[in-house]
Amino acid sequence: MRLTKFSVTNYKVFKEKFTIDFSQDSIAILTGRNNTGKSTVLEAINCFYLKETKAKTIPNDCFSMRGKEIKLEAVFESGENKYEIVKKYEEESAPKFYDSENSVITRSHELNEALNEILNNKPFYITPSMLPEDINDLIQNIYSEIIESDLKKLENIGEDEADNAKLKELSREYEDIKRAYPRFVRKLKESTDKLLKEVSYDVSKDLRTLFSNEHINLNVVGGESEGFSSSDILKSTNSSVNIDNSTQSEMPLSNQGTGLQRMSLISLIQNMIHKNLMGESNEKLLLIDEPEAFLHPEAVRALSKSLYSIGQEMPLMISTHSPILIDLSERHTSIQVFRVSDKKAIQLFKSKQDQFDDDDIKNMKILNYVDSYVNEFFFADKILIVEGDTEYIAFRHLAKLHVKNIHIIRARGKSTIRTLMKILNQFNTNYDVIHDVDNKWKYSSQTLKSQKTNCLEILKLRKSDNIRIFSSISNFENAIGLDDVSNEKKTRTIYEIVNQGSDNPELIRAYNEIEKLFKCIVEKDYTITLNQNFLNVSSPEDYDYLFDELIKQKISGEEESKKKEEENVH
Length: 570
Known about the structure:
Helix content: 40-55%
Domain AAA+ ATPase: 24-344
Protein name: ATPase
Distance between the termini: 83 Å
CATH architecture of the largest domain: 3-Layer(aba) Sandwich
Radius of gyration: 34 Å
Strand order of the largest sheet: 7-10-11-3-12-13
CATH topology of the largest domain: Rossmann fold
Number of helices: 15
Pfam families: AAA_15, OLD-like_TOPRIM
Number of domains: 3
InterPro entries: AAA+_ATPase, AAA_GajA/Old/RecF-like, Bact_Antivir_Def_Nuclease, P-loop_NTPase, TOPRIM_OLD
CATH class of the largest domain: Alpha Beta
C-alpha cells in the first residue's frame, strides 16, 4: 500500500491546503527556499501514521489558525485499489480518521482493516534534530521490522525454503512455543482463577447486604490467552547500535556526532534492504529531512549514491538544499523533483528511462565530476547556460556585483549545452544560452559545416520564445573586442577586465560590452543595442548568414589548393 498523494491544511506554514502528487515508483525530492515548508511536509506525513490516543498530541501553536482543525489527507494505492483517508486534529481533542465521505473510521468501518495495515507500516523518519531517544526508537523500529519479517518467514515457509534445515527447525520451535504458551498460561491461571472466584463470592455477598438485593453478583474473570503471536516477541526484544573507534568502544550511536548518526542510520537501512531483511520494503516509506545536514562534502557525494540505491527498492522522500543530491545521470532510478510553494509542490522534473541518450548520460556524468553544483538550477529563479570559462567568470562577477539571483551553468561544449537544454525543457523552464559560433576562417569547410550543425542543433531545442539564444561571433573574446586569448591567459585577462584593474582602453571597452550583454540577458533591458558581434538568434537563417558564404569560399579555396597540388605532382 503506497502513498501517492498527500495534502495538509492549517498546519504550521500551510495555512491553506497544500498538496503534493507523486508517482509510485519515484524518489521524491523537495526543493525550495528556507521556510517554504519542505520539512513540514515530511513532518506532516509522519504525523499521519502516528497512532495517538492522547487529547493533546499536536501543540496549539502548530495550528495556523486557532479554532480550525488540522487536516492531513492521504491517498494510498495497492494494485487496483485506492484508499482516501483523512486525519483531523482539533485543539484539546484526540485525532480521528475519516473516509472521503467524512465518516469516522471505526472498528466496524469497511476501511478499518486497510487503515490498520497503513498505520502498521509507519515510515522511517530521519531529521537533523533527532534526539537520542528518537534515534533509539528508530533503531528499535528497524530491528522490529527485521524480526517481524523473519517470523513471517517461519509462519509461511515456501517451497523454495523447504530444504533449509535450520529454517525448518526454527519453524518447528516457533510452533511449539505457540502451542505451549496457552497451556502454560492455563496452568498458571488455575490457582489464580480459584482465588478470583473466592473474591467474587465475598464481594457479591457484601454488595447484596449493602444494597439489600439478593440478586446482585459480581464476577472477577481472569483474561484468556488467545495464543502466542509475533507481536509478543517484538514486545520482549530490544536493540541498540554501538560505535567503536581507536579511543573508545561500545559507545551508543546516539552519543556520536550528528553526521555520523545520520549516515549510520541511512547506511543501516540501505544494507538491510539489500539483504532482504526488511520484509515488504517496497511499501515502507523513508522520509529524510535535509540528509546533507552536518555532512562533509565528500560524505554528501557518497550519500547521493546511497539514496539512489535505496530509492530503487523502497519509496523515498527527501527535502534538500543540496544540488549534489540530484543526479540526473542515474539512469536506473526514477526521480521527481518538486519546488515547494504556498499551495502545492510544483513538479520541476520527472525522469524517464528513454529521456537521454548515451552521449547525454556521459555529458551529465562529466559535469557532475567537474561541477558538483551543476544541478543548482533546480533551486534558482533564473538560469543561464554559457559555453566557456570566460563568460562564466564575467557573468558570475556581475551577478554578484548587481545582487542578481541567477544560476550560471558552464557547459564547456556545445554537446553539453544540448544536454542541459533537454533537461531544462523537461520542466518547461525559461532560460538563456550564450554559445560561440566558431565560424573562423582558419577552419576547414568540414569543420565549419560541423560547427553550423552544432549551432542548429542548439536552436532546435529552443521550445518557446521565452528561451533566448545568444551567439558570440566568432567566440566570446572576439565578440567583446579582443583577439584570440590562449587558454592559460583567459582567466587572468577576464579577471582584469571585470575588476577594471587596467587603464588599457581595449579592456575598458571589453568591460562595457560585457555589461551591456549582462543587462540585456539578465535584466532583460530591451533598450540596449548589442554590438554586431553578439547575435540574438531567432531562426536557422541567422546561422546561414554566418556560415554559408564562408563555407562556400573555403570549399572553393580547398578545391583550388587540391588542383594545384595535383598539377605539381604531374
